[in-house]
Amino acid sequence: MWASASFVGVLIIIGLPLWWKTTEVYRVTLPYDKISAFDTQSHAITSELIVLANDAHTAAEVAGLIEKTFMDSDVLKLKITKRLLSEQLHRTLDSVADEQEAVEEVGAVLDLKEHNKLYVVQRGPLFKDVWVGGERVVFFRDAKAAETLAKVLKQWIYEPSVLEGARSDTADSTRRVRFPPGPGYHVVLSVVHPRPQDLKVEFQAGDAMEDYIGSSVDELEVLHNFTLKSQWLYLLNFDFQAKEVKDGSEWGRHWAAREEKLQQLLTRLEARAATHVSERPALNLALYVVPCDRAPLAIYQHDKKVSAPVQAFISPKWGGVVFGNPTAADCRQESPVWKPPVKLIMGTFIAQLRELLGITDKSNIEGAYLEPLRSVIPRRWEVDSLLRIRSLEQITSAERTLQSLAQLLGEISNIVINDEVGASINAAVEAISQAGDLAIKGDLVEAYRKSQTAFLAAETAFMEPSLLALLYFPDDQKYAIYIPLFLPIMFPVVLSLKNLLMWLRGKPVHKEKMD
Amino acid sequence: MESKISYFIILLCSLLISITEGIDIPEQFQKSNHTNNWAVLVDTSRFWFNYRHVANVLSIYRSVKRLGIPDSQIILMISDDMACNPRNPRPATIFNNAHELISVYGDDVEVDYRGYEVSVENFVRLLTGRVHPDTPRSKRLLTDEGSNILIYLTGHGGDGFLKFQDSEEVTSQELADALEQMWQKRRYNEIFFIIDTCQASSMYEKFYSPNILATASSLVGEDSLSHHVDSAIGVYIIDRYTYYVLEFLENVQPNSKKTMSEFLAVCPKSACLSTVGVRKDLFKRDPSKVPITDFFGSVRPVIVTKKPIEILETPKRKKKIIAENKTKAAEKRGYLPQFPVHLVKTS
């Protein structure tokens, strides 16, 4: 009997708990309560706005209207300060003829370098109600311009609708175009030269990339890291199925390529461009040199020629293509040589790059003047706007990732959560709350950095390769292993239980033998 | 007389109505809001006698590529290299037909996972995105919330599993869980799942994530059969279901108006000898209104750039990368020409 009891003891008292413990799915305790408390619609960003006017009445009126305009948006909180212009600055602003000079005068007194701080300054001699340049300064003429000013702030500078799109569940039109957030991008300029034997192209792709794109993205280094690369792709033929159209140009004709055909060029380009060698998402820029016998190529949209200085298009989240059309004179030379108009081409690439990185196109507003961009660097307030959009996008994306991870862990019970995953989840939760607080406080750059930490930590947590470990071993298959393993041992043990119980109660086990 | 006139008027009216109806085309295609297309094509079986599975998967590969999905958005997993198998009498070709009508191998096939890389683990990792951090981008399924994914699996299967490589299997539960994880991470907009194996429909029965349309070559309890033998090769050359699918897809052009319900009706029992299974309850749209190009073709929105930036000054990058520590290129050395022709003056 002692033998039987020891078997039972080992198996049930030691074995069962041990088995239970060792086959348990290892899961680090996670902050489920914090994760389930996330509200992606609750995040908002504070921005500072300083109204500088000549008299207190104007300042109050302008500030009041702006405040009213942004009252209903819960995604953007404006901290408006009213101030009077100093006598001296007032006089200089009224006497200086040029707007750029006026901005410099303002810059001499105020600090325009600070992120997330916009100055709205009154300046009498303006040819329009409102003037916006490249710095963080907006000029307005007088109190009557307040309405236009509010519109400018709403549609050009703060863009609450885009911010709402960044945190919303479904992608809005701008989110569908810009690249998803990330720590960095790989920008590749490919010069596509289908027929190098017929045309010589004199273009320093590397230098152009460095000088134009490089100077442009250097201004965005607070947001992302960029790596730049350029390459030439020869003999990449693509049939646009273009139709010849006679016209009065130097060529006497142009070739009409339908817009619907263009997407197939991307497929051809992708096959050769080899941009996936980089670990980062690649932003493709391609200069397609049109062969002489197909030049000039024009894009047709709804059977109408696109009128633009350069024929070009972008594909959302992929990149941009510019068609380089050699002129008739270039092609009719003895040995044709084409020197691309670098400024024009790179200007087009910059315009495409801006859109792909999330800088929106500004539509016209009656009474307001937006100084056209004449250089490669983005406007300072556009960088702020990008920081706001990306911060929100990253915070909400991190929250959603964690929420679905938490839900998934509830649904699928045998996913292992090891310490590393647990650490990244905790880090992400921590960073989300910090980023949210910083955004409310208005510390934009720090909020962006924290939101990026949160975003990356959440992504690593979800995409952690170790999460797959036990998935491989579904419940129903466990029985297939346990039953043959344990049943032969359990059987006699369970059967002996009855005898054991009787023995424990002090009853004789083998009655016959007793008498 | 009057009755005649009224009869005539009625006739005219009905004619008019029918004409206006003809012009006023009802919204035939429900619009999809996907922004890109991906395809995951998997052949799970090795060995020469499974030639037909490679032909199957390459048939689909050929079709999706022809209809516009770029190679970078097709993940092709093939466990064995039939085209270069020494038993193949015509190297570098794989045909779908003994008459050698279509070489499904084509000119450029980009295989992403080959040989023993085709494992359950890699497949599930690919779907869920939980790949090793060093995995190249071309081997990742980089889909997002706007992606429509076509998943095609072929190989040997049974009730509730699909065998990989003669050594392991993926169960229907694992597959369903993997898809759910994709849905949770917003890795797809819609999925079209095709599977050509024996008892194929058992593989999609456990799916529980939304927006999945699934079809299978056979129901539970049925075998999926092969189409015919090529006596030159000595083995079955393609499976019935995929044979008829390819036949159907060959007639689809990127701009064609064929719908998914037509695709789902491909290969009736008289041709397939097995019943094609369909599961639509997870799919929100009506397959008869979904164009086939939503899954087999590729959408890539294009926006024409009209406003370039007029740059006034040529910029110079301020932050030059500090003198790259380029290793000095070694002096180029070479052999002299074998025959010193360059020394001999020719007139």
From TrEMBL, chain A:
The chain crosses the membrane at residues 6-22, 479-504. Pfam families: PIG-S. GO terms for biological process: attachment of GPI anchor to protein; GPI anchor biosynthetic process. Pathway: Glycolipid biosynthesis; glycosylphosphatidylinositol-anchor biosynthesis. Keywords: Endoplasmic reticulum, Glycoprotein, GPI-anchor biosynthesis, Membrane, Transmembrane, Transmembrane helix. It is found in: Endoplasmic reticulum membrane. GO terms for cellular component: GPI-anchor transamidase complex. Its main location: endoplasmic reticulum. It is a multi-pass membrane protein. InterPro entries: PtdIno-glycan_biosynth_class_S (IPR019540). Belongs to the PIGS family. This is GPI transamidase component PIG-S. It comes from Parnassius mnemosyne.
From TrEMBL, chain B:
The active site is at 156, 198 (nucleophile). The keyword Magnesium does not apply. It comes from the Eukaryota. GO terms for biological process: attachment of GPI anchor to protein; GPI anchor biosynthetic process; proteolysis. One of its GO terms (cellular component) is GPI-anchor transamidase complex. Keywords: GPI-anchor biosynthesis, Signal. Gene3D superfamilies: 3.40.50.1460. Pathway: Glycolipid biosynthesis; glycosylphosphatidylinositol-anchor biosynthesis. Pfam families: Peptidase_C13. InterPro entries: GPI_transamidase, Peptidase_C13. The keyword Hydrolase does not apply. Residues 1-22 form the signal peptide. Belongs to the peptidase C13 family. This is GPI-anchor transamidase. It comes from Parnassius mnemosyne.
